Amino acid sequence: MAAWTGIVGNGYTPEAFDAYCRTLRWAAWKPGFVVLHNTGAPSLAQRPLGFTRQHMAGFEAFYRDTRGWSAGPHLFVDDRLIWVFTPLTRPGVHSPSWNRVALGCEMLGDYDRESFTEGRGGQVRANAVAALATLAAVAGIEPGGMRLHREDPLTTHACPGRAVEKAAMVRSVRDLVAARHAAVAARPVGA
Ligand SMILES: [Zn+2]
To answer: Which residue range or ranges hold the N-acetylmuramoyl-L-alanine amidase domain (predicted)?
Structure first.
């Protein structure tokens, strides 16, 4: 069985996630892009309050003990928080073709059945976009390199659901990176 990488297990608001990522150093391993996933099961309806630390511990037991993997995805994004699972500076396990080169971002929901634009699904989308904008700014991960899990030729898994459109996600991440830049540039000197 592969040695288990360990987890971070903390949930961050988008602002706290940005501050956290600025403390990281991608020295030994540098991801080139992000692969988007949705959890499918659990769906949003099955997690009315989003994830908890107990859910992270449950995922750890599942990937480590049931699957026997060395790690899992890097992020679990819900409608409230961005949860860091596998450390962002270490390779994860989430998409067979791309584990060595990409970060894996799971989004809570079943986006074949649940809305990805309105209500809680829209908030999951906003939090994922915020996380990807931070990774673009802090780790230089170009939004245009984003892939969907279902684009991996080694997977037959229809993930994420059809409501997750790559071009729209890339555009949203780029827009947020630009808006954050403009906000910093507009700040008065010394503020
Ligand atoms: Zn997936």
So the answer is: 31-162
CATH number at residue 21: 3.40.80.10
- Residue 2, in any domain of the structure: no
C-alpha 188 to ligand 1 mean position (Å): 43
Residue 143 in tokens: 């939004």
What is the count of structural domains for the chain? 1
Rounded to an integer, what distance in angstroms lies between the CA atom of residue 139 and that of residue 85? 17
pLDDT in tens, 98-138: 999 999 999 999 999 999 999 999 999 999 999 999 999 99
- Taking the centre of ligand 1 as the mean of its atom positions, its distance from the CA of residue 110, in whole angstroms, is 11
Sign for the CA dihedral angle at 99, 79, 136, 164 comes to: positive
